[in-house]
Specification:
Chain lengths: 161, 316
Amino acid sequence: MTFRIAVGALRRRSRDAETFEAPSTPAASAPSLHGSLQIRHVDAGSCNGCELELASAFSPVYDAERYGVRLVASPRHADALIVTGPVTHNLREPLLKTLAAMPEPRLVISLGDCARDCGEFRGAYGVAGSVEEIVAVDAHIAGCPPRPSEIVSVLRTFTGQ
Amino acid sequence: MTPSIGGGVASALQLLWVLLAGPLALGLMRKVRSRLEGREGASVLQPLRDLRKLSTKQRTRPTDSTWVFAAAPVVLVASAVVAAAFSPLVTLSALLATRVDFVAILFVLLLGSVSLLLGALDTGTAFAGMGASRAAMVGAMVEPALLVAILAMSLGVGTSNLSRLVGVGVTTSTLAGPARILALVSFFIAILAETGRLPVDNPATHLELTMIHEAMVLEYAGPDLALVTLGESARLVLLLGLFANLALPWGIALGTGALALVGGLLAVSIKVGLVAVAVSVFEVTTAKIRLFRIPELLAGAFLLGVLSVISAVALR
């Protein structure tokens, strides 16, 4: 029984995975990455909308891993830092420490509208500022929240796969 | 037997084989796992791309760490390739193959595990220390299970030399027997624990509290991380290769002729590939067991090894 399920799954291509419009050839790629991008994610004060979509981007439907992207457990292993949400006073220091722990060359990607301009939370007493007011940002993924397909296509521009 | 040029070539071939086959086996296992989860998954070559990229990155060191932290990845890789050079993987006639017994090979591998453990303790971080203490606990129970399993197989043949042990399997048909089957099952469970696979440790986990091996390497970056990944994958294929050759010895080269070596290389690659796919399928269909359950599993593996020894002695 288990064997039959296993064989069936091995033979089946993931059909649903191609339902979004992915760019046929990625626009640009970072040559120093050699087609491999390891990501560390920091939630700097997000409402968790972006987290859900980021998790979806690595789900069986969108499967960002097939393009050479992987989420890792330590900033030491990461090439890129994905930051979501407006940066709160409490998370400002941990964000800077996480970035400092990453080996060079490193990228910072801000995810979602709040990361760009604090969105709904601009001026709130707990908010220290947008991501680019705290650290230098290399790329931005727009949307509230961004669609998983858009997250995947931006990540593909870095891996070139 | 004096060391020969052919034996040297064979050892060099085995040494290079574990370094290349390791990352490929890792890619294959991730691919099979992805497909079984209904995903397309990364390419089989992805671990090689990761290693290439990591080798160009900055090397970071925790502020309070010493040379122990820096030396650990090098010792890990060195121990894996030294053990591979003298093991019966591609051929039975590798350099010193008739002089080195299984205790020596397993203890050279142990040197790598211990150095990684000390490197983790050297960082002084909470999670690395926790990972190191867990790895020490698992390691203390894995080593006797590994040793007793191979001891049981060697009792039936009357030699502690791995090459002769595999060679006897090629030339005679005395493979199937209660002693050997029990020993192989015990050896397989011990390998899963030693290489940090499910159900003992989850190699893909992001939760620090569930980590064993991953927690120890959290502080390594760039070229150091590449060495750790390379060393871990090399010892994975070495142990899987030893298991495959003990279970199904056919196809291994008997001498060191060019044709025999190519045949042996193909045979060991196919056998390790099959075992790696089997391990992945097993991993997808099983869940990680609780940390305090691991001693029960490994005590079970040890018990199978002891039963195997008893039956080997009783049936002789």
